[in-house]
Amino acid sequence: MSSSTDSPTLTTETTQLSPQPDTETAKPTKKITLKSSDNQIFEVEESVAMEFATVKSFFEDSPSTDTVPLPNVTAKPLSQVIEFCKEQIKFKANPDEAQKKKYNAEFVTEKSDKDLVDMIPVANYLEIKDLLDVLNQAVADRIENKSVEYVRSFFGIDNDFTAEEEAALRREHAWAYEGVDED
Amino acid sequence: MVPEFGGSSLLLGLPDDVFAIISRSLSPRDMCTLSLCCRSLYGLVASEKVWLTQCDNVGIISHQDIMEWRKGVASYRALCRFLVSVKPLIGIWELGPLGIEEGPILWAPVFEIIGDLDGSTSFFLHGREKGNDHVYPGSVKSVERNCNVLFLEVESRQQKSKLFPNKSFAYGSDKELARKLSRSHYGLSRSQRLIIQCEPKLPFSSLPFTDRRKLIDVVTSEVGQQVPRLENRLLFPRLRNDEESFQKDMALLFQRRSLLLKLCKLGQGFNWTEAPEVASDPTRLQWSEIRRILDWSSGSLNGDDNQMESNAKKSLGGYFRAYIRGIWGKSSSINGSHAHSKHSSSSRQSKHAQLLEFLGSGDTIGLTLHASKMKLSSYRAWPNMHDSQFALYKLPMRAPRADQEYAGLWGGTFGWPPRGTPLKTGLEKLCSFF
C-alpha cells in the first residue's frame, strides 16, 4: 500500500457536505483523512474518526500521520459507516435514546442485503461496537426463519454439499424444523 | 484478501464473537439452516459455544443445569435438540376425567421424557402393577409448539430401522432417525420426501374409544418393565443446597437414566448387526405378531419370535389373542347393545376395518406421546375435558409470584384418580431429566 500523497484531490464530496455548524462543538475540528482499499479518500472530523477504535489506536501509535490507510475496507461500506458514526456523535452530544433507536432502525432498514453484509466486516475491522450490534441484529432479523436457499442467496454462498450429503444433513437436522410452519 | 468480503467468507472471516452475536438472536432452527448452507458454515455452527448459547436461549433450564445436563449427551447441540423438543410440554397439565380403570395398570403417577445421547427423546409412562413400579417406554410423537393437550396414543409404524443399516448420521438411534424421516415434510424441501411415507393414514384418535383403550392396554402390558424400587427413589435432584449432596443426586439420576435408556433400547443396540431383520425393539410390537394373532392361527405362537422371547414376561400368544378378541368383543357388544338392526354388524365391520387399517399402516405398534393443539372450550379457565381421550390438558399459566419458585418442568398423570375429581397434579419438576 503506497499512499501516494497527491491523491487527496479525489476527496469525496459526500463526507464534507454537512459542515453545518449545528450543535456540534463550536471549536474548529481537526480533519482526518481515511483512505479506502480502492483508493478513495474520506476526510472526516476527528471526533468521527475517533469512533473507529482501529483508527484511534493507529493515531495513538503514530500521531504524526495525516492519512490512515484502511486496506481492508472499500469505499461504499466505509461511506455508510461514516454516515452512521456521524449520527452517533450527535446522539452522544444530545442523548435521546428513542431518537437513536429510531435512527438505527432506519439506517439498517433502508440498506440492501448486500450493503448490510458488506458493512459487517468493516464495522468489525474498525471496531465500531454500536454499529456492529445494529448490523448483527439486522442480519439476524433478515435471515430469521428463512429457508436454506434464502440464506444462501442472502450471503451469496455457493452450496458445496453433494446432494446426498445435503439430504443426509437435512435429515439430521430435521428436529429443528418440527412443529414449525414453513414460511 | 482485500476485495470480496461476501458470502460465507464474510461470516467465516469474522471472529468467533461476532458470529456468536449474530447467532444469539437466531433460533436453533436458524442455526441449522446456516449449517446447511455450505461446508464452512457447517463447521462454524458445529461449535459447542454456538449451541451452548442456543441452549441458554431456549430458556427452560438454568445455565448451571445446562452444564450439568451436557454430561449426559453427546454435545450441546444434542442437548439443545432435546430442550427444544420438550419445551412446549412445559406447563401445568391437568388430567382428563378418564382413567384406565381396568387392566393391568392401576395408576401411573407421571410420565418422563428422557433425552438420549443425541438429544432424541424417549417417553416413559410410569405406572404400577401389583405393587411394583413399572415404566412403559414409548416414543414422543410430534410436539406442536403451542400444544395444549397431551394424548397417550398407540402408534403404528414401519419398522424402518432395517432401511438404514449404517448409522452415519444420527449418532446412534436409527429408529429415531427413521422416525424423523417420516416427518420430513415438516420443514424440509420436497426433495426429502423420497424416503418413506409411513405416517399412518388413519390417526389413532379416529379409532373407536374401546379400540383405543384396548390397544393401549395391549401395548402397555407388553412394553412395561418393572423398575427396581431403588431406581425410582429419586426423580429430581434436590435443591442445590450443598454441592456434595447435589453431585450425589446427580450421580444417582444419571444411573437411573442409563437404566431407563437401556430398557428402551434393549435389543436394539445388541445383536443389531447379526440380526438386523429381527430389529428387536422391545418398545414396539411387531406387526407379524399382531397379524398372527389377528389371523387366529392358534399354532406355533411362541416359536420364532426372538424379540418377544427375549423380553416377554409371559407367554404371549394366547394372552395377546385374548386381548385382540377383547377389543373386538367389546366393540361388538357395544354396538349390539344399541341396535339390533343390520347396521350394527356393518358398523362393527367398518370398525374392525378401521382397526385393521390402523394396524396395517405399519408393522409395529408402540406407545407414544402426542402433543397437539386443540381447540378447547373452557369453564372458568379450566378446560373442558372429554371423556373419551387419554389426555392431559395444559392449564393457563400464571407467572410465578416472588415467593414461588418455578420448578422447571411440570406434569400430571394420564388418568387414574377414579373418574370425577381431577387431581391437581404434582408440582414437581417432572419430565426430562437430562
Question: Short summary of the structure?
Answer:
The complex is a heterodimer of chains A (183) and B (434). Chain A is mainly alpha-helical and 183 residues long. Chain A has helices at residues 46-49, 53-61, 75-93, 97-109, 113-125, 129-143, 148-155, 163-172, and strands at 31-36, 41-45, 67-70.
Mean pLDDT of chain A: 78
- Class inferred from helices and paired strands of chain A: mainly alpha
Q: Which shape of chain B, going by the Cα principal axes?
A: globular
- Which class do the helix and strand fractions of chain B yield? alpha+beta
Report the uncertain regions of chain A: 1-26
Task: Round the mean pLDDT of chain B to the nearest integer and report it.
Answer: 56
Helix content of chain A: 40-55%
How are the strands of the largest sheet of chain A arranged?
Answer: 2-1-3
The major β-sheet of chain A equals: 3 strands, mixed
Biggest interface found: A-B, 49 and 60 residues
Describe this structure in words.
Chain A is mainly α and 183 residues long. Helix content of chain A is 50%, strand content 8%. Chain A has a single domain, classed as Potassium Channel Kv1.1, Chain A, CATH 3.30.710. The longest helix of chain A has 19 residues, at 75-93. With 434 residues, chain B is α+β, with helices and mostly antiparallel strands. Chain B has one domain (90-395). Chain B has helices at residues 7-13, 16-24, 28-35, 39-45, 48-58, 63-70, 76-86, 174-182, 209-223, 243-265, 287-294, 306-311, 316-338, 342-360; strands spanning 92-95, 111-115, 121-129, 132-143, 149-157, 225-226, 284-286, 364-372, 378-379, 382-383, 391-395. Chains A and B meet through helix 5, helix 6, helix 7 and helix 8 of A and helix 1, helix 2, helix 3, helix 4 and helix 7 of B.
